[in-house]
Design brief:
With 148 residues, this protein is mainly alpha-helical. It has five helices and two strands, in the order βαβαααα. Strands 1-2 form a two-stranded parallel sheet. Helix 2 (51-63) runs parallel beside helix 4 (89-112).
Length: 148
């Protein structure tokens, strides 16, 4: 579809529970598809349900030089959702890259036993980033030309 700049924008914000299942991403994609003929759509996705809590836990675990159970939980949640949606390894690759970067940051915290407010904020941003990348892949999987 050619860009039609005179179409009104619709901004959709989805919370963590709303973006946490394949079924919900199918609904979100269908809703966007219904809006597209008459609107330009901007989608905002929160971190998957409980991911922010797990990011805080992973940071605390790293500061205490403990096993990164929070990171494992986050990785499993995203991998399960991607599998439920039916994403290919190629479609999932950007999320995997983000999770690898998160792992490196947490390892740095573990090694230095320090986490400045700026570093904590950066770690917390990974929830929304991963959800946004996963959402873009889900929308593409459902036939939408999603960009970030």
């Amino acid at each position: 579809m050619a860009e039609q700049p005179n179409r009104a924008w619709v901004v959709l914000k989805f919370g963590g529970t709303s973006v946490a299942t394949a079924q919900n991403w199918a609904r979100i994609s269908a809703h966007i598809e219904r809006l597209l003929p008459d609107h330009r759509v901007w989608v905002i996705a929160s971190a998957l349900s409980q991911v922010s809590n797990q990011l805080e836990a992973a940071t605390a675990q790293a500061l205490l030089d403990q096993q990164a159970e929070g990171l494992a939980w986050i990785r499993n949640a995203h991998e399960r959702l991607a599998a439920d949606i039916g994403l290919s390894d190629e479609a999932y690759a950007p999320i995997e890259t983000l999770l690898e970067e998160l792992q490196r940051l947490l390892e740095g915290i573990r090694m230095t036993r320090e986490a400045s407010p700026r570093l904590r904020a950066r770690v917390m941003s990974f929830g929304e980033l991963a959800s946004t990348y996963l959402g873009r892949a889900a929308m593409r999987h459902h036939g939408l030309a999603a960009e970030r």
